[in-house]
Structure prediction request, 730 residues.
Amino acid sequence: MLTAILVMAGIAIALGAVLGFAALRYKVEGDPMVERIDAILPQTQCGQCGYPGCRPYATAIAKGEADINLCPPGGEDGVKKLAELLGVEPKPLDETHGVTKPKSVAYIQEDLCIGCTLCIQACPVDAILGAAKQMHTIIASECTGCELCVAPCPVDCISMVPLQEDLGSWKWKYPVFRLKQVG
Amino acid sequence: MELQRFPGGVHPEEHKSQSASRPIHAAFVPRKLVLPMRQHIGQPAKPVVKVGDHVLKGQTIAEADGYVSVALHAPSSGTVTEIGLASVPHPSGLPDLCITIETDGRDEWAARTPIDWRNTDPAALRGHVRDLGIAGLGGAVFPSSIKLDPAGGPPIHTLILNGGECEPWITCDDRLMRERAEDILEGARIMQHLLGAERLIAGIEDNKPEAIAAMQAAAQKLGLTIEIAAMPTIYPGGGGKQITKTLTGLDTPSGGRTTDVGVQVFNVGTSYALARAILHGEPLISRIVTITGHVLRPQNFEVLIGTPMSELLLHAGERDGTTGIIMGGPMMGFDVPDMDVPVVKATNCVLAKSKELFPPKPRELPCIRCTQCVPVCPAKLQPQQLYWFARAKDLGRAQEYHLFDCIECGCCSYVCPSHIPLVDYYRYAKSEIWAREKEKRLADTARDRHEFRLFRMEREKKEKAERLAAKAQSKKAEAPALSTPEQDAKKKLIQEALARAQAKKAAVAPKNTDNLPPDKQAEIAEIEARRAKIVEIAKQPVEPEQH
Prediction:
């Protein structure tokens, strides 16, 4: 009787120790759900969803505080992926937060730039190069097209230029039926 | 040598006799040459000439930009008249950066320096291959310098010279082997030297007996140890993985390359171009092109890169009723956007279309799951499943079904009784997946940059606070040292004056608040309370202004 109790207690302690060790050793930092939602978001960091960046929005979705259809750059496709991940019904994009636009990059008209650095402070990904009273320029390859630099510019020298398709970015189109023209 | 049979394949009508019977016609110099910067896989070449520059034949006009790139040369002497967007042979129909040269008709060579390849460092030799513009001429135009680098993979034991040329209509490799076999083999010798391959095999389909004979004769003359195999004629027997299977029996693993099993494959045209480049110092400025289909005199021409296809067509006798041009063969080629696009390094065939030769495809009908596409697939895929997934835009499933093992040979489309353009669906799915991967990479970069920015701002704030604290500290430390007895006396005086003023203020009571009715008193009390509150708020320390 006593032996049995001791054996059971011994096993319980040993397993408890293993579990305790595993809990410490393989601890997952942060909420893995936030990571997975953040991976779907386009990382434009534009704040159109009402949160200061993609990660805060992902956190809000994970907590159930925000809806999944607030991200215009992600578009319908992004909403669909989020719905799939969270196991909810997809819904149309909430247009009060903006509409999906073709991917663009900011362009600074350099002869108008006065070097005020306001756009540099606004850029969420540090994609604008320049210094006080020096001309600024966009690092096009790093620009996410968030448009946050457009409003602060006091001389309105920043415009958004939609990316043109070239041979490097061209994609094969989805095959479509060519309907025969009648009459 | 025992040959193996690769899975699948079809037997389309060959149509090779039209152009194979005439010898290669020497190059002619057109008045204008248009040279796209993107003629190879990888980074486009970078122009090194300006508008107005006079260039000599063989002079470098654009250099390789990065590792996966090759240089480009002037195919004839003349003047650079334009560097800008021009129409190029590409399925998209989009223009691309091109250098246009107005030829002067003198066809004057720049200095040509043959390279002593046996006594040159392999890395330097590969550098020459890149700078002489050599890319795979079988159709993929992958920079040869990279394929000739054996480092970073399993050792290469076998080098295959690909003389398969399985696409219908095309005979450029056939004619090249018949007429210039020695140069091809000289090139193979250099390749073998660079790769360190023990075995050298040439695979030629058995519908080209003259080419096989010519290659055998040349090998004997050069004393080169090479196995020349006559392969059964099955499309796509000239595919890299298929020819490897046929000649060595080795299966390329899914998602891999033939180099994973120690085999490197080069087209005979590439080998020829390499020999001309290394042994004669002639960069890749021309290639053999089959002009066939709806023309009067189907024939192979040695064509300068950059020659407009329309001029070639005139040269071979353009006929009425030409409805367009296919670059490449009918199985894997594509319609060029307009007839004036230039011949590029990848152009092995200019196939003129007519309504009779290439009637419009019958209407696409629904897939009936007959699975006729399955046994013909040389990559052992399930084309009908891939089609359903691509059609439903279920790209993940398509990838699970090994979409990227598809070599786009078109056997499935060829046998499809519903005339479904299956390969178009696979191409769509592939390029969509690539685009999404690229988007993902960009998003990851943006995330990293944003996170770094947040970190930087936090750090700057902390640094500023520390700086301010240090400043305040030093001020405090300095203050007592500055006080002198004189200053102390002054301070005392000021304090006394302040105390006096405050006492006076307290003694004087406002007269207009005496003897008031209770409701007025209450109102005054309320106002006093509010004032006290405001004073309280004003006394609180002000938060430092944020930037």
